[in-house]
Design brief:
379 residues; alpha+beta; three-stranded antiparallel beta sheet; 33% helix
């Protein structure tokens, strides 16, 4: 070896060892901050494209329909803005569509796993609690959840992972300070900014709804019930083919913006959405929520079926002349065009946790006993 190089080499080795001594404790200490991180907790301005790849042209600004359902449902359940959950899902894994390690099995280099990149070990620590996939009956110290009710808490299942993320954000005060809770989720300023940017995009309706990420089966008729397979509303069972078609139409509008007076196809108001949904199935119903409530056959609360209309006083109506209407798609669940600034969504109704205005039901009506009502579609 050239003697003139010995000095620089020794100095270089010393610096390398010193940096190693400093860096290792930082990684260990940082592990508590990484939590659900999909990558290192850096405060740099980069989006760290090696770990957070941009969406493909096909997937850009789109949300898979199954993810959208769970973002909205879980958001209501935990009182977490669904747009923040969707922003995290986009940044962490492009809503499960990235091919990076740890999204559908195992974990990434930091111990994060699943579409929401929740820590199951390693530097991220086990924030999930227990094994990545374990029986729902198993008691664990973490955010593990069996949101889809299949008896298994799986960090790789979108529903379970999204609910786990919502639990974590709630524990870190997302209702009081969203940016702080997101920072706790992944200790990086760029991450907070990117998630909030996506959340704002979703809140403004600036996205499309893509096909579900799972396998989707076509609707089949068995007896008098029409069932959707693993679709946007996987538990939905329609009482007849008319309701199936109407709900399928409404489901196809999820994520589109609200527009007062809108009847589609780009935007809708509440009554315009349900009117067009039933028109797609060959059933003509009145244009406004007031006339729908007045002219359609009423239904007792204990006899409500999927496909019925549910009415609320709304901001511009009364209990006897309701100003808001939704399409029932399950127990205390409906598809609705809520208000300006809110995309068409699946929402809860009739509970204390339901959105403002959707908590008190004033009545129900059934559009589908026949397709002859005293109304004609608008020109």
């Amino acid at each position: 070896m050239n003697r003139r190089l010995i000095g620089p080499v020794v100095i270089g080795l010393a610096l390398f060892l010193l940096l190693g001594i400093i860096t290792i404790p930082m990684l260990v200490i940082g592990g508590a901050e990484l939590l659900f991180s999909g990558g290192a907790g850096s405060n740099c301005g980069s989006t760290n494209s090696a770990q957070q790849p941009k969406a493909s042209a096909e997937a850009a600004n789109s949300v898979p329909s199954d993810y959208l359902t769970w973002f909205q449902k879980v958001g209501l359940q935990y009182n977490v803005p669904w747009t923040i959950l969707a922003g995290i899902g986009e940044v962490e894994s492009n809503d499960g569509r990235t091919s990076l390690p740890g999204v559908t099995s195992l974990s990434n280099a930091f111990g994060a796993a699943g579409p929401m990149q929740i820590g199951i070990g390693g530097a991220s620590s086990n924030q999930w609690g227990g094994a990545a996939i374990h029986p729902a009956s198993e008691k664990v110290d973490g955010v593990a959840t069996d949101e889809n009710g299949d008896g298994i808490a799986s960090v790789y299942e979108p529903a379970d992972a999204i609910a786990g993320a919502a639990k974590y954000l709630t524990e870190h005060g997302v209702q009081q300070n969203a940016a702080s809770a997101i920072f706790a989720y992944n200790h990086a300023d760029w991450y907070v900014e990117e998630v909030l940017n996506w959340a704002n995009t979703y809140a403004d309706g600036g996205f499309t709804v893509a096909d579900a990420t799972g396998t989707t089966t076509t609707s089949t008729v068995s007896g008098s019930a029409t069932c959707t397979g693993d679709s946007q509303l996987s538990s939905f069972v329609a009482p007849n083919a008319i309701v199936s078609e109407a709900v399928e139409y409404a489901e196809g509008q999820l994520g589109k913006p609200y527009l007062f007076g809108g009847t589609g196809p780009a935007a809708y108001d509440c009554s315009g959405l349900v009117m067009e949904a039933y028109l797609s199935a060959g059933v003509v119903i009145p244009r406004t929520s007031q006339l729908e409530y007045k002219d359609l056959p009423p239904v007792a609360a204990n006899q409500v079926q999927d496909g019925d209309l549910v009415f609320f006083a709304g901001s511009d109506g009364t209990p006897t002349s309701p100003g808001h209407v939704g399409l029932v798609v399950g127990k205390n669940l409906m598809i609705e065009a809520y208000a300006t600034g809110f995309p068409i969504r699946v929402s809860s109704f009739g509970t204390a946790q339901s959105p403002a205005g959707d908590q008190t039901v004033v009545g129900y009506a059934q559009p589908w006993p026949n397709n002859e009502v005293n109304s004609t579609p608008p020109s």
